């Protein structure tokens, strides 16, 4: 009888031990899942914060670019259009005074017509910079070719280009973004890169638009965040984001600059 109770006590101990072990396992699993979930949530929060920060940087870049563009337009209007209109106004007042000789009257009339013609050309130039008519009428390919030819004729930089771009591949707004990227890259090559040669290669393969731009300028260290994230690069980055594309920059000091954009 005593042996029976001893055996029963042993069974109870084994059962209790098993139950306790299962409880400990359960608590351990719960703690494991809790901390694992906590780490996942923390990583998700960190990821979301990074995405929000990135979006803020893009928006800020767009705003800064817009403000710079407004300043440039305002400066062009003030320096070019406003000054010419002042000349027209002064000469028109001379005509109103009626104290001119016939020769002076003819001279002032000719001057007004000449300055008016130059003002119209300046206005067309400003409008062209805002939205090139050729881009709207003939599309991206012709607009880029005209842009490159214009720079080639100015002898500021020599641009070679190979453009295989299906007409109306991108919607007009996205064509404008890619055109602005091209303008930004060329201007950066001249102003910052001190380049005298550059190449534009655009191709369409496997449902991807591949845009490549290179120059032989002074280059920079891409590891230097201050260089890589300058206003020009931020402007390009923001436009690539709007195009739902991706880009890669390769540059070394003294080895020029290259960017590849895939849309």
TrEMBL record:
- EC number(s) given by UniProt: 2.7.13.3
Where, by residue number, does the polypeptide cross the bilayer?
A: 12-35
Which GO molecular-function terms appear in the entry?
Answer: ATP binding; phosphorelay sensor kinase activity; protein dimerization activity
Instruction: Give the matching InterPro entries.
Output: HATPase_C_sf, HATPase_dom, His_kinase_dom, Sensor_HK_TwoCompSys, Sig_transdc_His_kin_sub3_dim/P
Q: Its GO CC terms?
A: membrane
Q: Which SUPFAM superfamilies match?
A: ATPase domain of HSP90 chaperone/DNA topoisomerase II/histidine kinase
Provide this UniProt record's keywords sorted from A to Z.
ATP-binding, Kinase, Membrane, Nucleotide-binding, Phosphoprotein, Transferase, Transmembrane, Transmembrane helix, Two-component regulatory system
Q: What top-level class of enzyme does the UniProt entry assign?
A: transferase
Location of the Histidine kinase domain: 76-263
What is the reaction catalyzed?
Answer: ATP + protein L-histidine = ADP + protein N-phospho-L-histidine
Name of this chain's protein = histidine kinase
